[in-house]
Every structure is written in C-alpha cells, then in structure tokens.
Amino acid sequence: MFELIRANKRNSIILMVLMAAVLVLLGFFIGMGFFGQQGGLIGIIIATSVWFLLAIVSFSSGDQILLVASKARPVTHDVHPQLFNIVEEMKIAAGLPAMPKIYIISDPAPNAFATGRNPQSASIAVTAGLLSRLNRDELQGVIAHEMSHILHRDILFVTMAGIMLGAIVLLSQVFLRGMFYRSLGGSRRRYSSSSRGSGQAEIIMIVIALIAAILAPIFAYLLYFALSRRREYLADAGAARLTRYPEGLANALEKIANDPAPQLATANKVNAPMFIVNPLKRQEAMKLNDLTSTHPPISERIRILRNMSHGASFKDYSDAYANVTHKKTIVPVAALSKEEIALRQAGDQSRQQQIEKQLHQVGDLMRKVNGFVFLTCACGLKFKIPPNYKKPNIVCPKCKTTHQLKK
Description:
The chain has 407 residues and is α+β, with helices and mostly antiparallel strands.
C-alpha cells in the first residue's frame, strides 16, 4: 500500500509539473504578446501569482467550497445508521487516522465523491439517489472506492491540479478577451510609431501568444482528464482490496450507469472529475475510449472488476485490467506485491435477516413500553393495539373472531 501511495504521488507530481510548465509557458507568451519582447518575465510572474492565490483559497477551504457548491449537508448517525457503519468499517480496513465527515446530497441521481486536504480532514458525500438504490454490498463498494481516493492522497492532488487548470483557463480567457478589445481600440497607432522590423516581431509574438492561449487549455484539460481517469482505475483496485468483493462495486457501477434519474443538478466541469461516475454526460460513461472524458468507460471498469476471479489484491486487479484492456497495467509496479487477498462471498442474507428480526423485536419492545397491547388470534394473526384505541373489542379481519379487550 505504501509503495502504491509513493508511486501515485510521484506520477501525480510529474503530471502537475507538466501542467505547471504549460501555465508558465502560457504566461511567458502572453506577457510577450501584451508587453513586447521584454514582457515574458512579467507574464510568468502574473501567471504564477494567479495560480498561487487560487491555490491558497483551494488549500484553505476548497473542500468546503466544493461541498457547499454541491449542496451537500452533514448528517448524523441517526439519519442513516447503515451508511455510518459502512464508512466506519472501511475507515478501519483502510487504516485511516480519522473518520471522514459524512454528507448527503438531496438529489435523485446516484453518485458520490470524496474531498479534503488530507486523510485527517476528509469528507465523503453521497446522493440520496445512491442510498435509495444500492444494497449494503454495493454501497460498501462505493464507499471503499471513495475511501481509496482518500487513502491514495488523490483528493489533494486532484484539487490542486484542478486549480492549476483553472488558472490556465482564466489566463487564456483574459488574454483572448483583452486582444479582442485591443483590436477594437487604437492599437494601430502603436505600430506606426515603431520601426517596421519591431512591428513585425510584435505581430509574430502576438500570433504565438494567441496560439498558446488557445492550445494551452486544451493540453491542460487532456493532462487533467488523464490524471482523473488513472485515479479512478486505482480507486477501483483499492475498493476491491478493501471489501474483498469486487462484484459489489461492479453492481453499483452498473446500477448507476443504467439509472434513469436526470443529470445531477449541481454537477459542473470543475467538480465532475471528483465523482465516482461522470455526472455530466450519461452517454460518455459507455464510450470505449475518449481522451476528453473525465472517467474511464463504466462498461470497462465493470468488466475489469468481474474479471477478478482469483483474488482481490492489486496484482489481481492488474491482471484483470490487462486481460480486459490488453494494455500495460495501470497499477504501479512497486505496488504489485505477492500478497494474497481472498475473495469473500456476498453479504450473508441470513445475518441480515437476523438483524431485521432484532430490529423488529426492538420495535415491539418500544411499543410495549409505550402501552401497546399485544394479542394473538387463534388463526395466527397478531395484533399490536395502540393505547389510544377506545373500543372494548376488536374483530380479526382474517377469521372474523371477536376479541374482548381488558381494561
């Protein structure tokens, strides 16, 4: 696990360095386009300053901004005990130092995401639609997927990469709009007062800056989406390892993909990569391969999970990934240890029935405390008569026997 986290961090840093290079180069060319041949350094300083300010805001309160924007509300154990129990189980299985805060989004579209700066201050948000459609094993698979994002330190890197992407897009838009308004103004007077050679050089730099402003966001988006897709695969692998039941997550992804609910109302291009399934385009989920997709195809993710027939380790996921995609493993080589994690069976239905029976018994006990009268007819039908029932007798709807009630 530690090898995977280290490899994951290393690959993330490489991608973020590439995005930083795109940001710096964009600032350099924009600076030269606006301020002439000596303006490259000014552009770099401006680009870095914009990113730095956005990064401070993101690092200090980015998770809360995302939760508020998603209209997620914190809930207590009393609201959904099963959800809290599953989160606690996966927290123990993952060895996290703190229990993630739990939020629910009041939306019928099934989905979930994790956010936070680190495992000590992480949060998990799930939609009401997810809770209403998944059984315990499936919900456990989704929570384990989000817990893996927290464990692998994905939440901070994806947030920071998103901020860097936002800075690139912001600079690009400001420059393009600035050039548009500049073209409407009296920029020609500037060229008439300068030499012909310097004027041509300035035009060339402006053209280069325009090309950079158009291409830089595209390249940055591709890097960001590649980062997001890779992490979804690794989170699936981590979920299978934590639950030892890949079929649970596979079934959950299948239900989410086929759910008829409308698009998640609070989803947008900024927070879409955070969700377990792309909340923006349902048709995108079933594409075989798309460089512009924030997530791998759901059909492919499901096939990989269901191909894990020998175990639930990272090595087993890597083998299943290779068999399904015919590509090199997505799991870092350092994490492919020879650990053996046996698959478990689906949740014990008899155990769940026993729990339901115990809950039923608890309900009867509470009714007795509150003055309910319990009566069993000869035909086998049981009555639970509330204390405010005023009639002296009650007729069995099944056998029509009249029972006298003692006062």
